[in-house]
User: Fold this.
Amino acid sequence: MTLLKPGITLIHEHTTIDLSRIKNDPDTFLDCFDETVQEYKDLYKHGVRNIVDVTAKGMGRNVDYVQKVAQLSNMNIIHATGFYKEPFLPDFVYEYSVEQLADWMINEVENGIENSGIIPGVIGEIGTSKNVFNPMERKVFEAAVIAAKKTKTVISTHTTLGTLALEQADFFIENEIDPRYVIIGHQDLSGDFSQIETLIDKGFNVAFDTIGKNNYFPDDTRIEYLKRLQDKNKLTNITLSLDITRKSNFAYQGGIGYSYLFTVFIPRMLEQGITQESIDLMLIHNPQRIFQERK
Assistant:
């Protein structure tokens, strides 16, 4: 059993998100409902059936909005519980104990998000700052570990520009979390191939989840890394996504749009010798394994 429908899964997305208050940038508020529905319909045509929405509490999480998009686009959307990173944490994260935060997440998984009846299928995206594991962020990680053990829920993380991934991995191992059910995010921004290999060797799932964000890191190098991993038979832990968080990323505003993965990135992967079998592994089979039901 799995939370996912058969087909392609985008492992790290935000159907709606609001980081505008902290970033002071209205572009970081995804409130383009009709355009999101259309883009998800386009994704459906490309074979996408599942979107793991890692919009945590404090990031503008809006379950009703997401459910309406899901219904209109026929997309299976996995909702999240948990908290992001500083300075986007809700006030009560600073006030609650680790145990209280864990209970908060456990309650959502067992009883639904904010009286919606919607059961979250992932804890995340829980995050660390650039080169810093802040005390409040560590507190969230400690609570997430308790909640994940109790509910057997997958954990998805944010690493700022790919940093502190190994520290996150060590934290989970020290706390006896099975790495097969942890997705370490944004590793295609790290620029550190050896770090990616180390995470894989430790058993963690590694997300290349900012595809198309060439202003951060070039897609050519992403593809080079994926080809090297294919040559080493190390793609069994890799997942793919775009992590679109700005209105300007949408096609209607001249951005790459979600379909970029299928119209541009995958054809370029194939040109560079990455096989269709490898692409199916990263987009279909690896997510299905991660989100399989555990007893």
Remarks:
- Residues 8-290 form a domain with the TIM Barrel fold (CATH 3.20.20.140).
- The chain has one domain: 8-290.
- The chain has a mean pLDDT of 97.
- The two ends are 11 Å apart (CA to CA).
